Each structure stands twice: as structure tokens, then as C-alpha cells.
Amino acid sequence: QVQLVESGGGSVQAGGSLRLSCAATNYAYSGACMAWFRQAPGKERDWVAQIGAGSPYFADSAKGRFTISRDNAKNTVYLHMNSLKPEDTAMYYCAARDSRWCSYPPTALDFTYWGQGTQVTVSS
Questions:
Q1: What phi and psi, each to the nearest 5 degrees, are found at residue 80?
Q2: 2, 10, 9, 12: which is closest to 84 by C-alpha?
């Protein structure tokens, strides 16, 4: 059974940085399309960034501040978040699909596997 486990969330002040990690276990699809979504209380789950066979893509809210990288040997994807803002406060979820190719723009329905999330709180 595929498992995605996120880590690295926490509380930071505005302008700070965090690095989220998503470790995939029992997942043989090295290089597959993986993504980060986030969901704030009372809001929909929004796509943040994704990485697959092509270039990484970012939501407008993340461009210039977030980067995404992966270590295929560790089956781990990272979301590097800089210049954090209070509006970045949300539960962040990792997602994966059984394809190297990512769709654009992506939706939650494009992804088969999901983690439990890691909370990011940014204070002003």
C-alpha cells in the first residue's frame, strides 16, 4: 500500500522559511508526478506546486517564493517555502499519481495517493 508521509511543518513568523518533505513508501514509480496542495480552514484544497517529467509548475501564489525538488533515490519530494506570509497558513498535503507526466492546471482529482498533511502556521 502506497503511503505518503509529510513532515517539516511548523509555526514561523512572516518572512521566514520552511522546508516540507514528502516521503513515499511502497511506491515504485520513481520520477512520478508529485504535487503539493494546501487547505486553509473553511476553504477549498488548492494546488501549490508539482514536479514530474517536465518542468516544475507553481501556482501564482507560490511563484518566486517556493521551489520544489525531489530525491528519487529516497522517493522524497520537498517544498521549499521562503518569504512566508500569513495567508500561507494551511494544512499542506502531498499527492502523487501513477504517471511521470503532470497535467496542467492540476486538480486534486488528478492524484491517486495522498498524505495526511502537515500544518504550516505563519504569524504576522
A1: -95, 120
A2: 12
- Helix, strand, coil percent values for the chain (each to nearest 5): 5, 50, 45
Longest Cα–Cα distance in the chain: 41
Cα(79)–Cα(70) distance, integer angstroms: 9
Phi, psi of 123 (to 5 degrees): -100, 150
pLDDT by residue (tens digit) across 8-58? 999 999 999 999 999 999 887 778 999 999 999 999 999 999 999 888 999
Could you tell me the three cell numbers for 117?
498533511
Count CB atoms within 10 A of the CB of residue 105: 10
